[in-house]
Amino acid sequence: MVDQQERRGEDFAEEQSKAESQEKDPQTGEQNDENNPAAAETGEREALKKDYQDLKDKYLRLYAEFDNYKKRTIREKVDLMNTAARDTITALLPVLDDFDRAKKIAEDESTAETFSEGVRLVYNKLYNILEQKGLEPMESDGEPFDPELHEAFTEIPAPSEEMKGRVVDTIEKGFKLKDKIIRHAKVVVGK
Predict the structure, then answer these.
(1) What is the pTM assigned to this prediction?
(2) What is the DSSP string of 101-132?
(3) pLDDT at 78 over 90
């Protein structure tokens, strides 16, 4: 009888140790079976999947960042090429103003000044070259005054009612280079 009780005690201890080794892990909810290789392999597989997802996320973010960098540098290069000659063209604007004044005086019949054919050719050639590079004169006479396009030099009484708030005269032409204003028109506004 004592032998039977000893056997039952040993069986009980053995079952209890098996139950303890098969208890669930409180964090993962999985069986904590140290003797079961399938459970260990599943945990390893989950860790590898998590690492894979992390690396994939890092790769996608890095790829997107590099793609944005390429687009930004291309845009900056195009902008630089479009406005590379801006300083040179801006320096030539007073020369164009002088040509315009000389042409205007030569066309006035009350003066003896003439605008020779050679000077007229140089004038036209210079304007054509600058237009090919993207320079556009801004028309402002008779237009409504816009402080983003015009610089008001002075205000005078409007010659007619419809000229109120409009440009009466242009003192100095405004210019755009590829749709960007490089010089605002200096104008006289009717009030």
Answers:
(1) 0.58
(2) HHHHHHH-TTS-----HHHHHHHHHHHHHHHH
(3) no
